[in-house]
Amino acid sequence: MLNYRFTLNDKDITDKLLSVNYSENLEDVASSFSFTSLEDFDITSLTSDGKTRINTFKIYERTQTNPFYIGVVTDYEHTTDVNVYSYSGYDVGFYLNKNEVIKQFKKANIGKAIESLCTEFNISATMPEFKATVSKIYKDVVLADILKELLELEKLKTGKKDIYIDCKNGKLNISKYTLEQNLTALIGSGFLVGSDSTYSNCSVKKSIQELKNRVIYSDNNEKSLKRVIADDTNSIATYGLLTAVETVDTNKQNNLKQLAKTKLTELNKIKTEISKTLIADYRVSKGKLIDFTNADYGLTGIYLVKSASHEITAQKETVNVSIEKWKN
Q1: What is the DSSP letter of 48?
Q2: From CA 164, how far away is CA 47, in angstroms rounded?
Q3: What is the DSSP secondary-structure string of 219-260?
Q4: Residue 9 in contact with residue 45, Cβ under 8 Å?
Q5: Which residue among 18, 261, 268, 307 is buried most deeply as judged by most CB within 10 Å?
Q6: pLDDT digit string (tens) for 188-220?
């Protein structure tokens, strides 16, 4: 199937698949996949030593030995077509989404906090160095939500905005956005084209529904009403008053005034949603920075891929993306 091979529990099933899809989003820790087949694999299988295990699905570039996608089958359907079976699941982010946590951090480095969470739930992780700290009690909170909150806290306190969570290779990766160039795609029986010549279904939408032009920051001390305000009078005059209230852990190192200004900069803007379709490959993924210039829609330069949905057939790989203009 094009330039890929697919395995289930490390057995090649490439020739047994009808279609494969996988999707990911910067706002989600887990990506999802699905495939159809004429063969009944079910959700679990027996190992050689007679043990039952969940079916593990992997996608490889045909010439590579390491998969770029690893997921577990969570759902199975024998479809209304008696000959067709449908499967779907998630990467290891599934376990981040399905485990709840009771944990307390006291002025803990965010990187160390994440490491301790991963150790507790037997999840391998790689991540950059973190500088911010956290002081908070989490009780009955989903692990994925904690991780997303900790990343947002690091971004807010340090100004770092180019990190995201990716679990497609079988572990938790906290990575930096990376530039991807010279994208190509295979069509049919090996016809190679440049992905930038295949753009279609482009759409640009704008909205102020999430715009905020006043931010109030307070600490999380229930006995205190300490707060600071940052606002933009020009924006208020244009769009009307739109207020967001944020809280942060009580910590003398927290500069509430600076946090409020940083958050205001983040929220005080028109939301622009850009989507398009192209023929490409697995390199078009969330967290990638790609030149999506399209003069017909006023798009120029580098854009961040916020979400990507891949549909792989024997003829081509179609990718639907949501992107936003990237500014360092």
Answers
A1: T
A2: 35
A3: ES-TT---EEEEE-HHHHHHH---EEEEEE---TT--HHHHH
A4: yes
A5: 268
A6: 666 777 888 889 999 999 999 999 999 998 876
CA-based radius of gyration for the chain: 22
Residue count of the chain: 328
List Cβ neighbours of 227 (8 Å cut-off, separation of 6 or more): 216, 217, 218, 256
**58, 11 Cβ separation under 8 angstroms:** no
Contacts of 233 (CB under 8 A, 6+ apart): none
HSE-CB of 105 using CA atoms within 13 angstroms: 23
Tokens standing for residue 227: 């707060």
Give me the pLDDT at residue 226, please. Answer: 75
Sole residue written with tokens 């599934």: 94
Which of 239, 227, 229, 219 shows the shortest CA–CA distance to 261? 229
The C-alpha angle with vertex 12 and arms to 6 and 16, in degrees rounded to 5, equals 75
**Are 206 and 284 within 8 A, CB to CB?**
no
Handedness of CA 140, 141, 142, 147 (dihedral sign): negative
What's the whole-model pTM score? 0.87
- How do residues 214-242 score in pLDDT, each as one tens digit? 999 887 666 666 789 999 999 999 999 99
Within 8 A by CB and 6+ apart from 151, the residues are: 110, 163, 164, 165, 174
